[in-house]
Structure formats: structure tokens, C-alpha cells
RNA sequence: CGAGGUGUAGCGCAGUCCGGUUAGCGCAUCUGCUUUGGGAGCAGAGGGCCGCAGGUUCGAAUCCUGCCACCUCGACCA
């Protein structure tokens, strides 16, 4: 049992908070709502980022960078964007400080007031489309497939590490196309990348689908989402891909001359995933002993713990350990040899479990004599001995096995917590239990609002291809298909 | 932004009701010895503007007033 880690059954939110801190992922900062991502946590984010970046580039996207500050007037050009983000924007009003004429410290120089205030970007559609206007004249300039890795600020009143912070890191893709079909294709291509990334790398099963209109991104025609189910039965929106239609092209007057020699508005998509994915990763796999990481995203896939008492033992053990570290590294495995002499082995075992390292190998004199190594896998907590000559094959095999096991385990959990509700009473009971609930809905925002008021459940997404006629569980009106309800983060 | 709560050592807390020795405990830190295959034991040591500013009092962590910060719960959100 990890020292001082609250169990999930005792309090899931507390468990999460303590885990994030104790596993050295992140901590609160001096600025309310902003987090410090610590090196170990950032290493995981870097692995996610590198993989996503690779997938974007494989599908023809390029990276660029747009400014942090957005002129206030840009936001007012697109009415829905204002409505969506106005309540959570940080605003820059001055550009200079001065020594306090009445005392200690510095004050804002009143003479440095900006003529036009600047908004710290909550998302970059407006500044990007005001730029695309200059880049696009003819169909020959299309498509534009740009992504940027950036920080954004949304002034949150109730922050939680990784899940909801005032500043967060993300990528935002912004594409421009000649036709609606092309933009929709792009939107769905990215949704598929997100799904594959979540499932194949994070080992997190996700449910792709489209958001109902009242849950979509302001300014989008359609918002697609991947929804994941956390261990406490709550859903986490883990990525979104928007078909923006011509909303931003019209707001910023971005037109192109088509094949047919006609001026037409450009079609758009935008899409993003953020450091919130860290929250999904943690809340999907981890247990009461700490973090559990899928091998593909583990900063260290294998940790080596040397065990020795006397100095003559130490020399032999260390020589072997250093060689094993080199051999594993040469095979492309991320490995950590824990050489800390201040800490005892038991402490190290617990510490690396807390940090979620998939495979631990203990190396002691007894093992040397028996020509074997003691393996421990983090996901199942099994311990077993591996003959020396099999060590490389077993490590490589185990990493794949653990990756698969985590996904299958999470998928099984989701299946066991996915239900169908056919009456209002049934729906209420199932939502109270937690999990995904498939139910008929009459398609109106009014009904969705009432369901939310009474149960706190929202429509997470409308999955594709499950057409089935039925009656709305709340209003009893006609419904063309089931939608997925859950309580959400 | 509404409603509650909490600010005491790096972290977690007791003490505050009912004012009165040198403000205490656990973890962490430092020193020494013994330990080292599942978060070591013993002995010793260091560390505090008791959130901030006023007030009451011979005397304030403790009582009063104001401010600030953080946490939990609601409304909003990736």
C-alpha cells in the first residue's frame, strides 16, 4: 500500500489529487488555477506530443505559430465565439510598470494604457482566420493544413490539475478547404487520429461521435468528440474536432477564386487535444498503489533495482546492472537504473510503483547465482523469475502484453459500465450508478436541459450507425436513435 | 459569482471555545552507529513575523474589526 495515498473507494477526487502530486506529475503554483508540470509529468506529455505530432505530419499537416495575444475586436467579429468565451478571458490593458510613487514595489503605469485591449487566447480561430485572409486568394492556395502547439488561457473558477486549469497546453489544428466535403473529411480524419492515439498509445478506449447542437463548440457547425469513461463512472471529453463550415470565413471575409472562376467563402475545420489527456490517462489505469502507465507513454518502461549488502557484491551487481541498462537502451527501451544509495530497496519498489513504471527488474546476488532475474509487472502486480538468457525477449514481449492488457482491462470496464435505459426510472437509477447510458432523446435542447437539471447527466455524444426508432425517455416523443448520456468532468 | 470551511516549521496537523512558563506532535531534513530481497531502528540536532493590518489587555496563536489567500460544494467550461 502506497504511503498516504487515499484509496479510490474512499474518495476518488482525493486519490486523484494525491496521486498527481505524489507521482511527481504536477503541482499547484503561486498563480491560482495554473499548474507547474514537473519533469516526470512533462516527460509523459512529451511522449504524447511527439506521437500526435508524427500522426499529424503523416497526414500532411505542418506546424506553425500564431500570437498569444488577440486584439479584442477580433473576438467580437464572430458572435458565437464571444458568447462562448467572453466569461473566461484574461485581458491585457497596460504594457508598463513603474516604481510605486507612494511606497514599496511596482504599480501599473497608468500612462501605459493600451489603445486596444489584448485578449490572451482562449483558442486561436480569430487570429488565424484574420491571417488566412491574406494567404488565400485562389483554390491553388488550398488546402491549408496547419497545427500549432501552444498554451491557452481560460479563466477557470474551479481548477483541477490537468482536468481543468486556467492555463493549459494543447495543440490546435486550423485547416482551410475549397469544399465542405473536404473540410468534413478533414474533421473526421482527425477524429480518427485522436481515436487511434487514445486507444493504441494511451490504451484508453474512447467513444467517437458528434455532439448535440447545444454542446458544440461556439462557431462550429458540428463538433465531433471522443469520450472516455473514467474509473469513477464519469465521462471525460478527451478531444474535439470541429467542422466550422464557413462561419469564420464569413466573419473574417476569407474568399477564394474557384475553378469555375467564382468568389467563394473558404470551408474550415479546427481540432484539439490538451494536457487534459493526462487526466484521462491517470483516471483510466491507475490504482491504489499509484500511477499505472501504458508502456508506449512511460518515460521509463523498465526500472532496474540493484540489491546488494557488501562491497564485493556491489561491484559485481553494479557491473551487471550497468551492462543490462546499456543493452536495453540499445534495443530502444526506455530504462532507468536506480543507483540511489540513500534509499533502500523496499522504498524504491514502492516509489517506482507509485510512478507507474510498467516493468521492474530486481538484480541481487541470489539471482546472479541462479542465473535469473526477478521481474514484477505493474499492471497485474505479478512477480516471477526469468532465466537470464530470456531476458530481452521477455521484456519486449511483456511491454506489448502490458500495453494490450491495459487497453483490454479498460475496455472491459467500459463495457461493464455501459447500459441501455428504456424508461425514465431506469435512466435515473443507471445514471446514479455511473457509466455510459444509451437512451432515446427527442432531439430538443429543452429536454436535454431538464434531464441535466434532474440527474446532472449530459449527452456526451451521438455515436454513428445505431439508428433505432424509439420514444424519448423524458418526453415520450419520437426519437430516431439512442444517444449516450453520462455525468461528466 | 453564491454558500460553507480553513490559514500555526518543507508537508500533514494539535493548541484557539475558557488569553498567562521557552508554541507542541507526526513525516521530511541534518549528524552518528547498526541496517539494506517490500516505504529501516536507536540516539541526538536544526528549523516558526502562529495569513496580513489594526484594536482590546499588564500580557494575544487564542478576544474584536477589516483585509488577503486557499479548500469544499453549487452555476460555467477542454
Characterization of this structure:
The protein has 489 residues and is an alpha+beta fold. The protein has 3 domains: 12-74 and 123-285, 2-Layer Sandwich (BirA Bifunctional Protein, domain 2); 302-398, Anticodon-binding domain (Rossmann fold, 3-Layer(aba) Sandwich), CATH 3.40.50.800; 418-486, C-terminal domain of ProRS (Translation Initiation Factor IF3). Helices cover 35% and strands 28% of the residues. It has 14 helices and 26 strands. Helix 2 crosses helix 6. The model has no long low-confidence stretch (mean pLDDT 93). The structure holds one RNA strand of 78 nucleotides.
Describe the structure in brief.
The chain is an alpha+beta fold and 489 residues long. It is 35% helix and 28% strand.
Amino acid at each position: 500500500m502506497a504511503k498516504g495515498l487515499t484509496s479510490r473507494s474512499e474518495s476518488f477526487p482525493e486519490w486523484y489529487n494525491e496521486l498527481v502530486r505524489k507521482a511527481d506529475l504536477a503541482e499547484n503554483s503561486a498563480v491560482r488555477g495554473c499548474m507547474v508540470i514537473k519533469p516526470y509529468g512533462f516527460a509523459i506529455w512529451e511522449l504524447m506530443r511527439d506521437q500526435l505530432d508524427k500522426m499529424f505530419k503523416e497526414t500532411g499537416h505542418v506546424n506553425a505559430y500564431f500570437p498569444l495575444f488577440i486584439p479584442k475586436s477580433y473576438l467580437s467579429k464572430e458572435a458565437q465565439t464571444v458568447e462562448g468565451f467572453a466569461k473566461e478571458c484574461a485581458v491585457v490593458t497596460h504594457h508598463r510598470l513603474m516604481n510605486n510613487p507612494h511606497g514599496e514595489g511596482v504599480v501599473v503605469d497608468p500612462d501605459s494604457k493600451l489603445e486596444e485591449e489584448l485578449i490572451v487566447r482562449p483558442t486561436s480561430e480569430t487570429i488565424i482566420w484574420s491571417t488566412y485572409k491574406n494567404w488565400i486568394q485562389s483554390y491553388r492556395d488550398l488546402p491549408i493544413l496547419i497545427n500549432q502547439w501552444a498554451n491557452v488561457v481560460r479563466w477557470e473558477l474551479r481548477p483541477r490539475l490537468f482536468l481543468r486549469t486556467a492555463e493549459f497546453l494543447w495543440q490546435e489544428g486550423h485547416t482551410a478547404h475549397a469544399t465542405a466535403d473536404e473540410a468534413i473529411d478533414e474533421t473526421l480524419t482527425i477524429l480518427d487520429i485522436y481515436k487511434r492515439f487514445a486507444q493504441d498509445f494511451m490504451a484508453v478506449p474512447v467513444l467517437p461521435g458528434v455532439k448535440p447542437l447545444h454542446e458544440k463548440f461556439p462557431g462550429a457547425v458540428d463538433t465531433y468528440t471522443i469520450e472516455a469513461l473514467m474509473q469513477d463512472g464519469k465521462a471525460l471529453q478527451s478531444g474535439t474536432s470541429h467542422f466550422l463550415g464557413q462561419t469564420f470565413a464569413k466573419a473574417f471575409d476569407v474568399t477564394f477564386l474557384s475553378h469555375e472562376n467564382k468568389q467563394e467563402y473558404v470551408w474550415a475545420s479546427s481540432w484539439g487535444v490538451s494536457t487534459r489527456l493526462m487526466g484521462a490517462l491517470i483516471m483510466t489505469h491507475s490504482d491504489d498503489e499509484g500511477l499505472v502507465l501504458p508502456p508506449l507513454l512511460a518515460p521509463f518502461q523498465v526500472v532496474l533495482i540493484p540489491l546488494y549488502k557488501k562491497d564485493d557484491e556491489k561491484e559485481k551487481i553494479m557491473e551487471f546492472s550497468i551492462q543490462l541498462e546499456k543493452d536495453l537502451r540499445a534495443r530502444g527501451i526506455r530504462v532507468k537504473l536506480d543507483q540511489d544509495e540513500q534509499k533502500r530497496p523496499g522504498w524504491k519498489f514502492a516509489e517506482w510503483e507509485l510512478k507507474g513504471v510498467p516493468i521492474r527488474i530486481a538484480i541481487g546476488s541470489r539471482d546472479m547465482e541462479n542465473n535469473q532475474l526477478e521481474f514484477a509487472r505493474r499492471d497485474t502486480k505479478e512477480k516471477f523469475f526469468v532465466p537470464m538468457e530470456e531476458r530481452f525477449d521477455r521484456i519486449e514481449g511483456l511491454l506489448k502484453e502490458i500495453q494490450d492488457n491495459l487497453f483490454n482491462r479498460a475496455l472491459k470496464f467500459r463495457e461493464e459500465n455501459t447500459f441501455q435505459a428504456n424508461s425514465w426510472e431506469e435512466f435515473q437509477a443507471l445514471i446514479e450508478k455511473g457509466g455510459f447510458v444509451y437512451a432515446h432523446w427527442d432531439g430538443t435542447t429543452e429536454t436535454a436541459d431538464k434531464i441535466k437539471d434532474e440527474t446532472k447527466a449530459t449527452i456526451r455524444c451521438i455515436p454513428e450507425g445505431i439508428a433505432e426508432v424509439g420514444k424519448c425517455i423524458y418526453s415520450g416523443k419520437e426519437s430516431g436513435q439512442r444517444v449516450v448520456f453520462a455525468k461528466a468532468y
